[in-house]
């Protein structure tokens, strides 16, 4: 396999070619900014979206991996129209359409499957025998499943906060689960040693400030944009709301929409909105600064939240870039509002993870305004946590 | 809404028109045979399968419901090719392709969503305000979700064997869960009273011998056949293996393939195989009788099994009919083999309910023989049970 050269999205420096260390741009990290090194955008010219079957492997030419696919049937998740907000309707205000893209329909129950499918194909192509992920839950489960599928050994570093169902899922899939009781920095250091000394292939971030996840894996998220463009064919999506932590999903969706626009497959990119729990909201804090130099260097306290999948002290640069490019914004939601939205979605028949409710809560605000069509990404099923 | 007249599949007698009691053919029941009354098959002439978007509502004209859809994005589940059996390969025997259609990707995590989507649309069209289901798990969760989606009240009769995760799911979706401690006959009688006296709309069977589930709802299962025909376009599927209890899914898939064949959309119907846990295997027992009259009247002990979603004393007639029409068969799997297959699927990255492993275990036997392409239906995710 010939890997494309990775370049820093911010400063343009090339990463070491052909390596399997993915710790982002070290030059920008020295400035206190976490940013990923990525392959070039794909050229979607000539693609027929109506014939696109969904998922990362529905458009393999858009992926930076030339080896055989690793797949469990990820992607092609449903978009469900949510009920309109009766309060807004009563007030006679214009009310747009609110849709949920339900990523809980993926094989292991979260959007992470899109990334891990591609990440494991990249690991196989790189000749890895062991993959490693640091995760509080869904990414670990997805890494475990796709490693099993690919026949590779998988080690997952978790902490003690992982919900029972997720822990059991990782174990059932045969991954080695290491419960790390130290700080994030200590966990990162241990993972870095495993990558450096043992040659384990990293599927998630392990440096600080975090540059975001494995660049190859992250390209799997572009398929969310492709599917939305296909499913809303001919209609303009005003806004896509993405629950955001390290912005792997947000940045991936942004890249997908840029590829679609460049190829003329959609007229213009939707506005992207990062949705965060108020307890841990670096993007919301960053965008309060007028100056981008300050935005890039924002640091907040990362407090506990019911949206346990989310939480980060600093914005990953490519997340900010996705918001800047699309004239987007970031909005934070308090824990009580997150749980109110969780319960409200249950009254519509949907059990999502609280992190998904963060996105819907933000999206509900937006459809009360001028936005005619808003899609919230529901990142994960809530079924895993129900036994707790 | 004009409901189509329902006819007994076995004797052809018409059911009472326009009613909302669905207790099968009473004349056949008097002979000791449980059989459903169903609408006519749909005419799929002129359908372009390549453009079919999946799920029951992807072909609304094939459904006996003319009201607005009730949907959470059900259907369009992935088909995943499983690894070939190394033992068979080593022996130099021909080894076919084994695929899993993973119904755990549905919104509530099981194939039941296909039925409940249509069943709730039928309930709304019938003017119901309350729906009722008797279920040990997945059907109850699906009924609860789609009732919530439709804005109808939902009552679920369960027993004490329901796993924690499923129980929590039903509760979180706002259904009223009634834990019934009596016999199945007593539970049926209570549900029949609710249907008769309170006008609750029944989504599952409540008479004995069981005729199978709500006829309108069951038509949702035809979409499994449509999706398989689309996804294996141009290739012949030799056999479809279906985990079977009351045969709602088996019979629905059979009806779908018959419609496809009649419209010339596939060359011939695949052979259907009912997969059962050995502890509760009425179809396997029935097909040991040479005479169909004896097959119809088979009764077996319904013992406990790890495949908790399965289990029935008697075959529902339409299940036998599906096997007869497709020159199919039934095969039983012991609990230790079910759990071995469950673990084996986990090593491929898939966590399914033990009931789904029943189908795959049977399918593995078949791909060692002359069958070139076998699809096993994986009926439900195993994620719900992991917290137990």
TrEMBL record, chains A, B:
GO MF annotation list: L-serine ammonia-lyase activity; threonine deaminase activity
SUPFAM superfamilies: Tryptophan synthase beta subunit-like PLP-dependent enzymes
Residue ranges of every copy of the Tryptophan synthase beta chain-like PALP domain listed in the record: 70-366
The keyword Lyase belongs to this UniProt entry's keyword annotation: yes
Cofactor: pyridoxal 5'-phosphate
A Pfam match: PALP
Keywords (A to Z) from UniProt: Lyase, Pyridoxal phosphate
InterPro entries noted in UniProt: Ser/Thr_Dehydratase, TrpB-like_PALP, TrpB-like_PALP_sf
One GO-annotated biological process of the protein: L-threonine catabolic process
PANTHER family: L-THREONINE DEHYDRATASE CATABOLIC TDCB, THREONINE DEHYDRATASE, MITOCHONDRIAL-RELATED
Protein name, UniProt field: Pyridoxal-phosphate dependent enzyme
Source organism phylogeny: Bacteria, Bacillati, Actinomycetota, Actinomycetes, Kitasatosporales
